[in-house]
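Input/output pair, single chain:
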Amino acid sequence: MSRDTTEEPQQWEPLLHRLVDADHTVATAESLTGGRLAARLTDVPGSSGAFVGGVVTYATEAKVRVLEVPQEIVDEHGVVSGECAESMANGVRDLLGTTYGISTTGVAGPDTQEGKPVGTVYVAVAAPNGTKVVPLELDGDRDRIQERTIDAALSALAVMMGGVRRRTGRAGSGRSDPRVALGHTNGSTARLRTTRRENEMALFRRLLGDVLRERRSELGLTLREVSGTARVSLGYISEIERGQKEASSELLASLCDALDVPLSRVLRDVADAVAVEEGAVPQPTPIAPRPQRDEVVASAA
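Output:
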C-alpha cells in the first residue's frame, strides 16, 4: 500500500481546467469522505463545466442499491476493499453517464471496520480505458485521513487522464491523431496498430455493455434477475456491462435471450454506437420489444 507523506491539502484547479478543456466529465461515489471529495471539486470556480454530481453511499446497503455493488463483492471482500472501490467508481460513472467516476472507501476512525485498522483506504478511478485502484495506509486523525484520501483520489484521476484521448482534433472531425494521443511520434507502426486494435476492442466492450445495460433498464430488470435467467454469474454480467470483460458468442446469446432481444439487433446497435462515437450518424433508436407469437401469425395472415 502507498504511505501518506503529504502535509497540506493540494490545490486541484489545474485538474478541473484540464477536464473542462478536454470536454470530459466526472462524478464521485464517496463513503469515508462523506461528500468532501465533491466539495473539493466544486470549490473550484467553473467546476460545473466538468463535475456532474456525486453520491454519498455511507451504508453498505446504499452501495449495493444505488451503485449496484454486487453482493458477492461485499460478502467476499467487504466494503473496505479494492474490489468495492472499483465497483463503486464504475457504478457512479454508469449512473451519471460521465467520462470518469471516482470512489473512496475505507476506515477513517476512530474504530476499526471489518477487522481492518484505521487508515486503511482504497480509492478508484473508472475511465473509458479501464479502472485504477489505489490502496492506501494513512496516518493521523479522522480529518487528516479524509483529506489525504481526497488528494490521493484526485491524483489517481490525474494519472488516468493521461491515458485517455482528448475529444478534439482536426476541425470538424471530432477525432484526434492516435499517434499524438498515445504518445507515438516516432514509434513503430506495428506497435501503433496493436494499440489501435486494443483501443477498438475496449471501445467495443464498453459500447456493448452500454447497449445491454440500457436494454435491462428499459425492461426494469435487476442484474440478479438477468443473472438467474441467463445462468451467468451476477459479477460477470456486471463486468460485461461495464466493458471490463469480453462476452463469448454463447454467453452473449444467453444474455440476449434473458433480455428478450435478438442478438443481431444488439450487434447492430453497437455498430451504430461506434458510428456515433466517430461522429458519422445520429443516435440510434431504442430497442423495440420482440413481436409476440400471435402478432407474427396475425401479420403473416
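Confidence is low (pLDDT under 50) at residues 3-9, 165-192, 280-285, 293-301. The first strand starts at residue 2 and ends at 3.
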